[in-house]
Design brief:
Length: 228
Amino acid sequence: MTNPYSSAAFVARALALDCAALSDALDRSGIAGQCYQIHACDRKFRMAGHAYTVLYRPVCHGEEGHVGDYIDDVEPGSVVVIDNRGHDNMTTWGNILTEMAHQRKIAGTVIDGINRDVALCSEINYPIYSRGSWMRTGKGRIQLAGLQVPVQIGGVTVYPGDLLRGDADGVVVIPKAFQEQVLGYAEEITRKENTVRAAIRSGMRMDEARRQNQYHALQSPDYITAGG
């Protein structure tokens, strides 16, 4: 029997949910886990996995900057989470990293910053989420500052092992200690919203379908005590 609290089980549950439902579940949990202005390079991308974090800093005078050779140590199924402090004037990720990550069956990459070589990630369906794309390299401009340390992505603090989910709406981060709670809330929210849609399809007024399913309170921290 599959352990419902295993890493793989949490990832499978996250993949069955969309980011909108997870966002509402994070709101209900009082957790700010929505990564602001982090977008998919291709809207067909979907991913879920636990974070392997990477931190960069600008090079110091006279220092040889490089973008890091960490990819061989990332576990398959992980999401590489790169904090380049939102800089949009140099990249942290390109086609060689994409090729290697794809071969190693890494789940995807999330960057607070930009990437290049977008055509390849779309061609091989390797999910990358970032603030945008441009071709200017980070080599000689940034230096690896830390691996498996807390990082910031779109205003959200990400710790190693946190669960990330990405789809066409963006990326959400679920703290490792709250996976069961947030996923459970999101599954309930999804069931309720599906019930509302089914009622509408059957001819019920939308306001009545929403009222019957407490739609407007689904993301509220008070939902459970309100009788949800």
